Amino acid sequence: MTQRALLLVNRHSRRGEETLSNAISQLQALGFQLFEESTAQPQQLSDLICDYRDRVDLVIIGGGDGTLNACVEGLVSTQLPLGILPLGTANDLARTLKIPQSIPKACQVIAAGHTQRIDLGRVNDKHFFNVASLGLSVEITNKLDKQAKRVWGVLAYAATALKVVWKARPFWAEIRTQKESIRVKTVQIAVGNGRYYGGGMAVARDAAINDQRLDLYSLEYQHWWQIILLLPAIWRGRQAEWLGVRTLEGKEFEILTRKPQPINADGEIVTYTPAKFRLIPKAITVFVPEFPLLGEVKINS
């Protein structure tokens, strides 16, 4: 049976324009009837999804994590299943779900029809897939050059991080859980729902996008060189093993700061402190490979 799919592609993503025609041909050959829409305003993407709620069977999004984040409210509202074509720079959600970077293979994942429910995080009134954070990561996002990102991919994240880290200044924050309130002096607080963020860094060694928990870490360092030494551990999700890194698990957190601090979710500034973080279990349906790798992503039927 022919499936009707809303296709939303970020033509400005790293591989968007050059792979769009190829993706359309692949999907049509696999039997999809496509309704292609595009907009120069990312905030309109969720509205487009809602407009098509009764006209299509699924939504296919081509772009990176920022494009997916712009669509998440529409996906939650309509409950249409999501197919992902990883056309962005980092593609951390696709990495978490083991979706191939090859567009023909990603199309085949969608056509195969294997779906799973995944969790979402929520910070204030905005959902997120991967990680929401404040502090150092916001500075990296603000300083990241779009042209360098397009040309160098994830290497642009690493280069920008090295430029920003040595200027990092700690700030005071209060982390509230359901059991305690903790006052910290930190350079970054990150709250993760998925496994990967920032071009392949892991929020925790055993994090998964359907483990029905949030993973928080706080980098409580005073000197920039301490953060540089920590970066390889953060990349592998082993920061919990280092002194000066506080880690917490839970379904809800609240973070307060002296002055409002911007919060980066899936690579986009979406809100400010004070911020309430909450887990939304099994929030949406996504198309995934039939056999995800065990031990790296835990997905249950």
UniProtKB/TrEMBL annotation:
<dbReference type="InterPro" id="IPR045540">
    <property type="entry name" value="YegS/DAGK_C"/>
</dbReference>
<keyword id="KW-0808">Transferase</keyword>
<dbReference type="GO" id="GO:0016301">
    <property type="term" value="F:kinase activity"/>
</dbReference>
<keyword id="KW-0594">Phospholipid biosynthesis</keyword>
<keyword id="KW-0443">Lipid metabolism</keyword>
<keyword id="KW-0418">Kinase</keyword>
<dbReference type="Pfam" id="PF19279">
    <property type="entry name" value="YegS_C"/>
</dbReference>
<feature type="domain" description="DAGKc">
    <location>
        <begin position="1"/>
        <end position="127"/>
    </location>
</feature>
<dbReference type="GO" id="GO:0005524">
    <property type="term" value="F:ATP binding"/>
</dbReference>
<keyword id="KW-1208">Phospholipid metabolism</keyword>
<dbReference type="InterPro" id="IPR001206">
    <property type="entry name" value="Diacylglycerol_kinase_cat_dom"/>
</dbReference>
<protein>
    <recommendedName>
        <fullName>DAGKc domain-containing protein</fullName>
    </recommendedName>
</protein>
<dbReference type="InterPro" id="IPR050187">
    <property type="entry name" value="Lipid_Phosphate_FormReg"/>
</dbReference>
<dbReference type="InterPro" id="IPR016064">
    <property type="entry name" value="NAD/diacylglycerol_kinase_sf"/>
</dbReference>
<comment type="similarity">
    <text>Belongs to the diacylglycerol/lipid kinase family.</text>
</comment>
<dbReference type="InterPro" id="IPR005218">
    <property type="entry name" value="Diacylglycerol/lipid_kinase"/>
</dbReference>
<keyword id="KW-0547">Nucleotide-binding</keyword>
<keyword id="KW-0067">ATP-binding</keyword>
<dbReference type="InterPro" id="IPR017438">
    <property type="entry name" value="ATP-NAD_kinase_N"/>
</dbReference>
<dbReference type="GO" id="GO:0008654">
    <property type="term" value="P:phospholipid biosynthetic process"/>
</dbReference>
<keyword id="KW-0444">Lipid biosynthesis</keyword>
<dbReference type="Pfam" id="PF00781">
    <property type="entry name" value="DAGK_cat"/>
</dbReference>
